[in-house]
């Protein structure tokens, strides 16, 4: 998480990062003024969290608590999830697949499948290795992103064009449908 820099008439020297726990704000970390980007780990899957900050200065003054920021962590699932975004600019396209490991263990050896007419040509593939056969294609992981740790996401994709214009569709992750 991150927050904007606070200012006052003395000099902001740090922040109290607070979490709403059981209806009360609790300081979970005190950081220097330049440490406005913090990672919070050990969160429970499928749970809602709220955080806020209080700035303090060299004279001991404190600000009011910031407006809280909140989010809900992803729930654990039996299989990783995937989302697809296809940007079209006829006759071209770019397809990006986001693989999110929502399981409790690292996923390794994943495969993205998709439909793409044999008449379509593909350009560069990123973060994976593409192969094609007729009207279908697959992307397997590049060496550096074969394993995706729990709670981590990876992006893969490719660009191309088709005449007649038909962008890729029917994306799957390990045989299960991806969402759009």
Automatic annotation (TrEMBL):
Mind listing the GO molecular function terms for this protein? hydrolase activity, hydrolyzing O-glycosyl compounds; polysaccharide binding
Give every Fibronectin type-III domain span: 1-76
Lineage, top-rank taxon, reads Bacteria
Query: Which PROSITE patterns has this protein been placed in?
Result: CBM2 (PS51173), FN3 (PS50853)
An example of a Gene Ontology BP annotation on this entry?
Answer: polysaccharide catabolic process
Sorted keywords for this record are: Carbohydrate metabolism, Glycosidase, Hydrolase, Polysaccharide degradation
Q: Please give the SUPFAM superfamilies that the UniProt record associates with this protein.
A: Carbohydrate-binding domain (SSF49384), Fibronectin type III (SSF49265)
Protein name as annotated: Fibronectin type-III domain-containing protein
Query: What species is given as this protein's source?
Result: Acrocarpospora pleiomorpha
